[in-house]
Design brief:
Elements lengths: L21 E3 L6 E3 H7 L5 H4 L14 E3 L6 E3 L19 H13 L4 H6 L5 H9 L5 E2 L2 E2 H8 L3 H14 L7 H6 L2 H5 L3 H25 L10 H44 L3 H11 L4 H20 L1 H29 L4 H20 L4 H27 L4 H15 L1 H29 L8 H14 L11 E5 L2 E7 L2 E4 L3 E3 L14 H8 L4 E7 L3 E3 L3 H4 L4 E11 L2 E12 L3 E3 L1 H7 L10 E6 L6 H14 L5 H4 L5 H7 L12 H12 L1 E8 L7 E6 L17 E3 L11 H25 L1
Parallel strand pairs: 10-19
Antiparallel strand pairs: 1-2, 3-4, 5-6, 7-8, 8-9, 11-18, 12-15, 12-17, 13-14, 13-16, 14-15, 16-17
Helix pairs in contact: 5-7, 6-7, 6-12, 10-11, 10-14, 13-14, 13-18, 14-15, 16-17, 16-18, 23-26, 25-26
Length: 749
């Protein structure tokens, strides 16, 4: 790897030479001697990988020259070569040309990050990278010590801490602190803020607890003024909300300060690196005592709700009142912004303010008040469903049950509320047990991503000792009907077996530029023309452009090829400025393979759950409800394109619409037509159809029948499937078979 010749090894600090076996970290690009890397077992910059650290070339090209004795690159400023120790002669005039050639070769090297990661250099991410050099510190502490103390979550915390340090801020949102409160600090072993927040929470909750004890006629509250307790409860509730906000915004900073003090003390007491790492791992990390404490707290809370539901209702009322007030503020701000439905948001804000204030003023009326309110709502809904049961042809039994349940809530609000609160207590107990079991099993689900697959593959490659050459292959090297290697620029890499796994022509930014098809043609293979599959469709008219951005769910799409139905499915789709997209459309595109020779049309069933007779009855019911309104106002949920294609004048009165016109509207609703002129470019496709003819490849080994030693795998072959998952399976299966077959042939040889 010419780029790294002359650079110091990150493991032993000795310069890398032409004779050395060089290993490069795939995450940050740091170079090592293979022996040094295997001895270390990992890159020394691993703690900073999560923050995006990248190794940078330590010398300017002008600072290096070639030693005439050994041919290695050495520093121009030193009198003797760093590799062989020979005295360096005066520089010749030809040296700049050599340096320029070396610079050109260096610039042509492969960029792993841009190819595999496709990262975008965001300002914050770039700042984090600059903060995580080898010697950069956070609060005067190296990142390696931070990583040893924090544990598995170190990359995420160090990323936040570096940003906070660069931006000189103490604010960083912590949802864990918001949800779990002081127990977040216990879990993270930040003892001072943990006890401080716990004491504050207890002090703020004291008036509410005293009020609950007064309601139960506890002798401890004898002589206490009711008015005083109520005022204190209101004030403490406001302070509690402020405390939650402070804890959420400053939790990570408080943990950072606590951890920094612990790490500095350990660094002063244990100067030896091995001992220091052991102590940091032991005293850092997380505490299971916090999990047990949270479980015990939930158990106690659940028991209180089960044993004393009447007393607990006052506390529940206060909490619910404050939640409604906050919701009212949110609705009011949204109404002032005026994005949409301003009137609805104003009404919601007024209702939230009114109910929230009533609950805070009358917490003991929660059970009876909410019980009666819920009962009234259920009775109203039940009566409405009974009246509409015959019109819309659904069962009357659920409506009767709803009405009876509402009547019971109106007659017995307290009894019903006790049952509900007791059930809530039981639910809290179940949640507490579930949290404890989950933490004991240490289940931490993680969403898989494409980077996880890449990392797993590269880890396996490193473990098996495979050498990776970053270069672009220009053509195959063949001799006497057998492949003998590949040519990359001016270099030739000799090989007994070559596997072409270059992909198709879709997603060209990942390297799938169609080079594999050219290699196959050079080897004498037949290549079926590449076409896009699983790709959005282009409309021939302007209907989709007028509906741009509209997303449809639970619709049925049918594809017609020369008026012959070839595909139908149910799902989601999207209208765009060029035509149709979405999962349903992408799957349909795989069946449309003959553009140019055949015509295609899609029909969308907007109401697939209703047959034509049922939909017609629904239309008649809606027409009867709005018989004196204009057609465009009677069916407001219909998209304008449907009204246009029905042929009905939007301003025509509903009571004048004929049966023939209604049939036309019905036909559009069940068969909304879109003429298709073609597909989007292959660069936007998920899958490529076409490729190397499978008739010329052995299905048992994936070896070429035209050229010995040449194998094909993946999308470069003329294989494709219905969805992306099937195509991934094709890639894995053919790739594994080609690799095993090539290895077995090598062993037999």
């Amino acid at each position: 790897m010419p780029k790294y010749y002359g650079c110091p090894c990150e493991g032993c600090a000795k310069p890398l030479t032409l004779k050395d076996d060089i290993v490069v970290c795939p995450d940050c690009g740091a170079p090592y001697h293979r022996d040094c890397y295997e001895k270390l077992g990992r890159c020394i910059h691993t703690p900073a990988h999560g923050a995006g650290y990248e190794w940078k070339f330590p010398y300017q090209d002008a600072a290096l020259r070639t030693c005439p004795s050994c041919g290695e690159r050495t520093l121009r400023s030193e009198p003797n070569c760093r590799c062989c120790g020979a005295a360096l002669p005066p520089e010749s005039a030809a040296e700049p040309n050599d340096r320029r050639a070396a610079q050109n070769e260096q610039n042509e090297t492969f960029d792993y990050d841009s190819f595999y990661r496709q990262n975008v250099a965001e300002p914050t991410h770039q700042n984090v990278r600059t903060a995580f050099g080898q010697e950069e510190l956070i609060d005067g502490i190296p990142s390696s010590d931070w990583s040893d103390y924090i544990g598995k979550a170190a990359p995420a915390y160090l990323n936040d801490y570096s940003r906070m340090q660069l931006q000189h801020t103490k604010i960083s949102m912590s949802f864990s602190a918001l949800i779990f409160g002081p127990f977040y600090f216990f879990y993270r072993k930040a003892w001072k803020p943990a006890f401080a927040f716990l004491a504050a929470e207890l002090v703020l909750a004291l008036p509410t607890l005293l009020d609950m004890m007064r309601v139960t006629n506890s002798p401890l509250t004898a002589g206490l003024s009711t008015t005083t307790l109520v005022i204190l409860s209101r004030v403490m509730s406001i302070l509690s909300f402020v405390l939650v906000m402070v804890r959420t915004l400053f939790a990570k900073w408080l943990y950072r300060k606590s951890a920094a003090s612990h790490i500095k003390r350990i660094r002063s007491e244990f100067p030896d690196e091995v001992q220091r790492r052991a102590v940091l791992n032991a005293q850092g990390g997380v505490s299971w005592a916090a999990v047990v404490g949270a479980f015990v707290l939930l158990m106690v809370l659940g028991l209180i709700l089960l044993i004393h539901p009447d007393s607990a209702s006052a506390l529940v009322a206060q909490i619910l009142g404050w939640v409604l007030l906050i919701a009212g503020v949110v609705f009011a701000v949204s109404a002032i912004a005026g994005h949409f439905d301003t009137l609805g948001k104003v009404l919601s804000a007024v209702c939230c303010f009114a109910v929230g204030a009533w609950l805070l003023r009358n917490p003991l009326m929660l059970a009876a008040g909410l019980g009666r309110l819920a009962g009234i709502l259920l009775v109203v809904r039940g009566i409405q469903d009974i009246l509409n049961a015959g019109r819309y042809h659904y069962g009357i039994l659920p409506a009767v049950i709803t009405t009876v349940l509402g009547a019971v809530l109106i007659a017995l609000p307290m009894t019903t509320s006790r049952v509900v609160i007791s059930l809530c207590g039981l639910l809290v107990l179940i949640v507490g047990v579930a949290i404890l079991v989950d933490r004991l099993k240490n289940r931490r689900p993680k969403e898989p991503s494409e980077s996880d697959i890449i990392d797993a593959l590269f880890l396996w490659v490193r473990r098996t000792g495979v050498s990776i050459v970053h270069a672009s292959v220009s053509d195959l090297v063949m001799q006497d009907g057998r492949v003998t290697g590949v040519r990359a620029g001016k270099k030739t890499c000799l090989a007994d077996r070559v596997i072409v796994a270059t992909g198709g022509a879709s997603y060209p930014q990942t390297g799938s530029t169609g080079d594999g098809y050219r290699f196959a043609r050079e080897a004498g293979h037949t290549v079926v023309p590449a076409n896009p599959s699983l790709v959005p469709l282009v409309e021939s008219g302007e209907t989709c452009r007028s509906l741009m951005g509209l997303s449809l769910r639970n619709v049925q799409l049918t594809v017609f090829e020369n008026e012959k139905k070839i595909y139908t499915d149910f799902g989601e789709m999207l209208f765009t400025h060029f035509g149709l997209s979405g999962p349903l459309v992408l799957s349909a595109s795989a069946h449309m393979r003959h553009f140019g020779s055949k015509s295609y049309r899609v029909e969308i069933d907007l109401k697939p759950a209703l047959d034509e007779k049922t939909l017609d009855r629904r239309l008649l019911a809606d027409f009867d409800k709005h018989k004196n309104s204009d057609f465009i106002n009677a069916l407001g949920e219909l998209i304008p394109a449907v009204i246009e294609k029905s042929g009905i004048d939007p301003r025509e009165k509903v009571n004048t619409i004929t049966k023939k016109q209604r049939a036309s509207l019905l036909r559009v609703l069940k068969c909304f037509p879109v003429e298709i002129s073609g597909k989007r470019p292959i660069a936007e496709a998920i899958v490529t159809t076409g490729g190397v003819s499978v008739r010329e490849v052995s299905p048992k080994t994936m070896e070429s029948k035209k050229c010995s030693g040449l194998y094909f795998a993946g999308e470069v072959l003329d294989v494709d499937a219905y969805t992306g998952g099937f195509n991934l399976q094709i890639a894995w299966s053919t790739g594994r078979l080609a690799g095993l077959s090539a290895a077995q042939e090598e062993e037999q040889a």
